[in-house]
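Chapter review. Work through the record for SiaC family regulatory phosphoprotein domain-containing protein before attempting the end-of-chapter questions.
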Amino acid sequence: MSELKSKMSDFELSRTSGSPGVMLKAEAGELKFTGYSIPRETDEFYAPIIQWIKRYTSSPAKETRLSMEMEYMDNSSRKVFTKIIELLKELGTNGDSKVSVVWFSKQGSDDMKSLGQKFQSETDLDFSYATLD
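Structure tokens for SiaC family regulatory phosphoprotein domain-containing protein:
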């Protein structure tokens, strides 16, 4: 007897001055973060996002693309993104999905580009870099 796979809902949050815009699309395999990440309660803000990603990794799209269009993130947010990238690394390592990361940074924003390079050096994920306008 075959089981019907329940369709996973997409997840979106609008960008604010202190929290990023978030767009997570299960069927398309797209995860996108934009803006600034300096929420007052980092763990509380990111808990539903981590939960969504964990659920996604149990039944991912054939290809998963993480787009990081972040202009700034504080240290507590960096820890959360380390966890997100680790979850995606496991997904790629297991062969369940081909995972790629597109890391955007503003021209002259060496801090954010360096952060992307740090994440890349800690994983075997396919990273590419682009400049935000």
